[in-house]
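Hi team,

Filling in the usual template for the complex we talked about on Friday. All components are listed, including any nucleic acid strands or ligand strings, so the model treats them as one assembly.

SUBMITTER: L.P.
PURPOSE: interface mapping
COMPONENTS: four
RESIDUES: 434
SEQUENCES:
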Amino acid sequence: MARSYNQFCGLAHALDLAGERWTLLIVRELLAGPRRYTDLKDGLLNIPTNVLAARLREMQDNGLVARRRLQPPAASVVVYQLTAEGERLGEAILELTRWGMRTLPADAGARPFRAHWLVLALRASFDPQAARGVSESYELRVEGDQSVSLEIDDGEGSVHVGPAPDAAVRISADAETLAGLIAGALDGAQALERGARVEGDPAALARMREILPAPRA
Amino acid sequence: MARSYNQFCGLAHALDLAGERWTLLIVRELLAGPRRYTDLKDGLLNIPTNVLAARLREMQDNGLVARRRLQPPAASVVVYQLTAEGERLGEAILELTRWGMRTLPADAGARPFRAHWLVLALRASFDPQAARGVSESYELRVEGDQSVSLEIDDGEGSVHVGPAPDAAVRISADAETLAGLIAGALDGAQALERGARVEGDPAALARMREILPAPRA
DNA sequence: CCGCATCCGATGTGATACTG
DNA sequence: CAGTATCACATCGGATGCGG
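RESULT (copied from the run log):
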C-alpha cells in the first residue's frame, strides 16, 4: 500500500484511501458515470498516463472503483466505475467543490475547461430550499459541444449531460462563460458581453438564479 | 506557488489550495482552536518538521491560516489560527470524516490516537434530527487525559474539550476504546470488555446513542 | 524548550516514448 | 485503445542543527 498517515481518525483514514494527488479528480470524472481509460485521461487534462494507471489500481485495491468489460459484442471495451463506497464520496466532493468555487478566479479562458464539469458545478450550486415546489428545467448549451441540463421535479433536482427539450430557460455560451456564470466569477452582464444568449421566460430565469446561487466569497 | 491542477473547476481549485499532503490534517488540528508550532507537530504525530513549516507558509499564502503573536507579556509565543476561509473548510472536512469513519478498521491500539480528535468524531457523528428538543450533556472521559463533551441545548449541539459537570451520561475509558465506540468500530459490549465504565441514566444513554449514530459500513 | 532551517536518502510525479 | 517502461526532477520523511 501507499504511504499512510496511520492515525486512528476518520479524516486521516479517508485521506489514506482517497487523499492522494489526482484521486478525488478521478472520482469527479466517474461520478458522471462509467468511463474508459482514454476518456478519463482526456477529462483530467494533464494527468500523466502512468499516474492514472497507478491510481486506478490503488482505487480498486481500496474498493472505490471497479474495472469491468462491457457485454459482448463490445467485450473488448474496458470501463471503470465507482463502487457504492466510491459513490458515497459524492457529498464530500460537493462540499469541497462549493468551497473551491467561492474563490475560483474569474480568469475564464486562462484555465482549461470541460463541458461535463458543469454537472458538478450545477450539483454543487443547487439549493433545495429555493427549489421547493418548482417543476421545470434549465439547459446550458455549450457552443460546439454538449448541453448540460438541470431538471427539477417538484423540488427534486437532477443534473445530466444532454439537452432539456422543454427547458424553461436556455442559456447558450462558450464553456468558460457558462462555467464562470455558475461559479459566480461572472455576473449576468459580463456573460452577455461575452456573447451569452438567453431564451425563455424572465420569471423562470429569476427562479433559476435563486435555485443556483453562486457560492461566492 | 506549488503544483497546480490548473483546471477551471471548483474541486480542482479547492485541491490546489488545500489538497496537498498533510494540509487538511493541519486544518483538522486548527479547527479546535489556535495552536502553536509544537502543538501542531505533536497533534499530527508523524509530520516532518520541514513539511509542517512549508505547509504553514503555503496556507498563509493561500489565505487559510494566519500567524499571530500573543499579546504582551506573552508576546514571544507564536500561534497559528484559521482565517474565516479556513474555517469554512469545516463542513467538507466533516463529510470526509464521516466517509472515512465508515471503514475505519477496528484495530484500536494499532494506530496512534489523540484525545482531542474525539471532538471531530463527535461533530461528524452528531445527528441534529435525533437531537431535536433534547437539552443535556454527555461527557467522554479519557483515562489519564482530558475529557471531551457534547452539550446539547434545545437540539443545538456543541462539542468542546473539557468536562461537562452536569453530564447526563459519562463514559470513561482509554482513548482508543472511546474512539472505537464513536466510530462504531466497537459496540457497547466490546467497549465494556475493554474496561469502559458508564455512569448516568440508561434512558439518556439510549438517547446519546441515537444522537451519535456511528456512520458505519 | 520553541520555532523553525538544513541536509540527505527514499519515494512519488510528470513528460515522453513505446508496445500488445 | 489501454496501458507499460524509462528517466529527470520535485517532494517527502527522517535526522540533525541552531539561534532566540
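MY TAKE: Residues 80 and 98 of chain A are 26 Å apart (CA to CA). The longest strand of chain A covers residues 136-142.

Thanks, L.
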